[in-house]
Amino acid sequence: MPKVVSIHSYRGGTGKSNFTANLATTVAMQGNRVGVVDTDVPSPGIHNLFCLEPENMNKTLNNYLWGESPIEDAAYDVSDNVGLTGDSKIFLVPSSVKADDIARILKDGYDVSLLHDGFRKLVKALQLDYLFIDTHPGLSKETFLSIAISHVLVLILRPDKQDYQGTAVTIDVAKQLKVRKMLLAVNKVLTKVNFDLLRQKVEETYDIPVAGIFPLSEDLVQLASEGVFCVKYPDHLVSKEFRKVADQIMA
User: Fold this and answer.
1) Given the DSSP bridges, would you call strands 152-157 and 182-189 parallel, antiparallel or unpaired?
2) Which residue positions does the secretion signal occupy (predicted)?
3) pTM for the full model?
4) Which residue from 54, 155, 190, 237 lies 20 to 30 Å from 101 (Cα-Cα)?
5) E strand map for the chain
6) Which CATH class is domain 3-250?
7) Measuring CA to CA, which residue among 231, 187, 249 is closest to residue 21?
8) Per residue in 127-136, pLDDT tens?
């Protein structure tokens, strides 16, 4: 049965889209067919990591939400873009980066129930093994839907007081929505921090397992969202940490 995985953070700036792209690609590298949907409609950006240029995005999630095209028409095979081979496949449904489209979404909104239907159709049309949802930060009705239908919810936080408080709120909401499995990922951690103690503190605070702790990496920053890090640097410490998280997703 296909597995739906939502990647979420309470605040922006946690590295959520970068995390989503790398985790989804790591899962795809195990011979899986993986879909990624950018539901961060007000501020899309994950297409950059998959080397999909806006001028090549003839259809987007926006077109589906406005009833202009089936969602599968907005799905792009970006496997070659990121260097995947063989049975490993990754498909991206981007959101529009056009100013007029973003303004229309912000002004008029959209029928949230369409997302659930679209996810179902996408999984069936592309015969996906996994569907990753890159959510919009914070809590909204769109986020609630993504969380509610997820088999796995991965919450990203930084070792920061605001992130700690916001994550606590998100976890309370997720528990009310009866999410089946929750994992935490601590991102952008200074290398001088004791990772074992940090893991212990976070797990004791939330009573949820920490799937991975990711250092603040200059190598990752230097890539500047031009490609998927774990493919370009498979032996890097960060890439190895993504494999640990991927194993827990696929378990």
Assistant:
1) parallel
2) none
3) 0.95
4) 155
5) 3-8, 33-38, 76-77, 89-93, 130-134, 152-157, 182-189, 210-215
6) alpha beta
7) 231
8) 999 999 999 8
